[in-house]
């Protein structure tokens, strides 16, 4: 029987080719994701190993909230420690040196006059100790004084600068002209991070003016173990600090990076799973059709003594071969994909570690996943083949009885109704957990519609086909007959497309709604004429001062983000209390921002009170008059809640006046996110814009936006996310197209005699190709229409459920959705090309005589 | 055999000679060879034949005699190796695919042994299929005449799967005749039918010739079926070896025996069944 199965595949390789390809694409995604993860993981491990070379580390003993992200730390944020500790540690026997880690954000201007940045990688400057022999200066020398910097090799290459060049940096909020005096080799690819070195005094002035640093790196004398070093240092650091071995520190960093990569992997795996699921449809269809055609062969096998189990096993063997072959090719394709990604990343200035990794576990998982999916998909048709009585299959005209759709209709109906019901509850019942209900609704609707698809196929296709039936006689009618004659097959072919299109429909509706909501929020809440933001996320304080000093500016209100542990009633703060704060001048409300107040008054901010967001107030039970305790690494401060506000623009739980913000976070750690600008009387918008652009230009990374620019910039960000999402969904759509090609090609083989007959009675080749093309277009339209409808229905509930997060307006992007249908029609035409030309080339006589 | 008329023009008995009536389809020196060299099979080894307008002609012969090949070449479904075929005044041999399609669409009708109907179309739609494909208007009078002649008035909205084998074959006949083609080619039209259904179909084909003035060429194994024809041509080894006019079943059987092919009828079904099973394994 095994031989029969293998011969069967060899004899009909073309028939299984697209199934193999479907597995290949799905598995490529899986293998690629694993391989990408391994590559990123080894890159970041390399960074940790080459950047964290200490034998021991001294750090704060308590977890803390620190003044905003500075991009140089991974892992848990802790309280800072004094640089003075370094002197005490240095005196411990066995310690070769103790170096406080002083670093912070920097903007480095490259040779082309723009900031050196690469995608999402951080840009920071770090103190270079002259005595630090772990850092290798490969060219030039170490920087001395505020006018000199050294640059890491990859950064230097990306910046286009050379040792000896003069350039500009923004350090500690101030513009500074500096000379590049050295190049530092880190010994590992730094994943595109922009790394600059300054001397200790400069770094201290900019990043640790209060003498507080997150960690102190300790290097031991040769021959002293890390453990011994830790034991010796621990007694001298006191209660506010703790000592850990270098290995522990590196392991913690690695663990937190693995966690982040885990999220990325999970995210990508969702799309890989969708692709594989869609691929399973193709395999199931292929085997269903192949089994249907080979009924007589199975009957013969049964007649000569094969048992149903043997027939079943022989079909599953074929599925396993398809799965294994597809998986093996998929692993290769996955590695190719990652290699291409690496080249792409390199182009964008993100160096990743050398070899494309291929773990044995990646190989095994990929092979198993591909094979199991194939076998599972083929199991149902295999079972049907095995159970068909030989007598029935021996008949001249094999009539494969289509099983009743009643069970499917019932089950699908229940799921769809259940999904719609939970959607209705999510929308109407404010107390319910909306997101969870929408998740339930999504599963119910998608699975339910997949089950219902064959039931509704006839009527939906009838409507869709009406145009073709009327426009192209008699081809439209013939095509309609072909797609509705086996609704189960058409539905599962379209189902593959439906899944991807449901996600596309939901994503595009969500994106359009988000953009419209953003525009509403900007229009409602922003009163300033212009705002200034930085590409690095922080507007330098020098720039804020420069803008405030412009004659054409009446007010420049700076909004800064920070975080603190916020508690009430004397509770002990834990890291779970970490809360994001916005610091703003009390006067900004009313002139720069229009924020609606639910309770209390924003005027109270002038007297040092704070405002809390409506949602946060609900979650924590805060009301006007409550006293909040703010714990940061500078100490503990209290303030009274003066107002409860409802602001989508300030999407943070707590708003504090800038006087309070200055006490919570040291000025050096404050990050100004946005500066709102109102013009002086009599100044036109053009004048103001010109002045602002002039003031912002030296800082390279600043952009000046009016309300419209701002709204469209936010819309662009949404579009970028949408593009990534579409790209990831693209693969499942490609697989779905293969599915249409597959079904059409197989149904052409199945209908050979019918095609021969029609050709004999005068059907032209183009007419035949036309019929098949219309079938293909109808299938694609069916999948797209149903899928997009599901997506839009689900996404429509989101603005009601997520209104609190700022998603207030529901916009259904009709034009975009119409384009989806046009695209589906185009996809249909594309998918029909090969099957149609194959059918048209069938010689009439052979087709008539085909059995 | 009461249907048969006896007052027809007498025909010359000479095999291969042109007949006196007007010929609607003519073959001259028709040769069809499959393969080449030692393995070459001469399906048609030089045939001259005329099919008379307004007649039902049957082609008989043992398996492998070339009767189906002859019909396929006449109908433009197969290309002869050499020789000429003229149908309704047009040289089929010189036609390209597009012209052949048009020829089949407008001048020819087909009835096959099985699988004559498009399963997704109703009986009525199947009947008008050639006209629809050609985008020609349906002649209601002709349609009604044909439908009534085959007795399918009450089955017009049924799908093929809802019709019996005989009814399906009658739909196929109606389809072949509705466009009033110059010639109808029927390839074993009763091969899959029980004797009663076969009689109905053959009776209808004969009436279509006698009453509607059609021309029908039919390949058959069955002497009874052949006896419905005006004229029976006998083929063996790719050559025309005999001809009788106004045949009776006994006369046909006698002619076959004299050709040494008395086993034709008996092995017919066996052959088909074997083909079905072996074909199944090849899928």
Largest interface: A-B, 35 and 39 residues
> Strand arrangement, largest sheet of chain B?
6-7-8-3-9-10
Order of helices and strands of chain B: EEEHEEHEHHHEHEHEEHH
Instruction: Examine the coordinates and then state which fold CATH places here, giving the name of the CATH topology of chain B.
Output: Rossmann fold
Task: Name the shape of chain B in a single word.
Answer: globular
According to DSSP, the number of beta strands of chain B is: 10
| Low-pLDDT stretches of chain A | 66-75
Which structural class matches the secondary elements of chain B?
Answer: alpha/beta
Number of continuous helical runs of chain A: 25
Distance between the termini of chain A: 24 Å
Helix content of chain A: 55-70%
User: What is the 3D form of chain A?
Assistant: globular
- Uncertain segments of chain B are 1-20, 262-283
Outline the structure in words:
The radius of gyration of chain A is 33 Å and the shape is globular. Chain A contains 25 helices and 23 strands. Among the domains of chain A are: 53-246, no CATH class; 457-526 and 707-851, no CATH class; 536-700, no CATH class. In chain A, the strands form 4 sheets. A 6-stranded mixed barrel of chain A has the order 4-5-10-7-9-8. A 6-stranded mixed beta barrel of chain A has the order 15-16-21-18-20-19. The longest helix of chain A is centred in the first third of the chain and has 48 residues, at 246-293. In chain A, 57% of the residues lie in helices and 17% in strands. In chain B, 35% of the residues lie in helices and 22% in strands. In chain B, strands 6-7-8-3-9-10 form a 6-stranded mixed sheet, sandwiched between helices. In chain B, helix 3 packs parallel to helix 5 (165-178), helix 4 (140-150) runs antiparallel to helix 5 (165-178) and helix 5 (165-178) runs parallel beside helix 6. Residues 1-20 and 262-283 of chain B have low confidence and may be disordered. The chains are: A alpha+beta (851), B alpha/beta (283). The interface between A and B is large, with 35 and 39 residues.
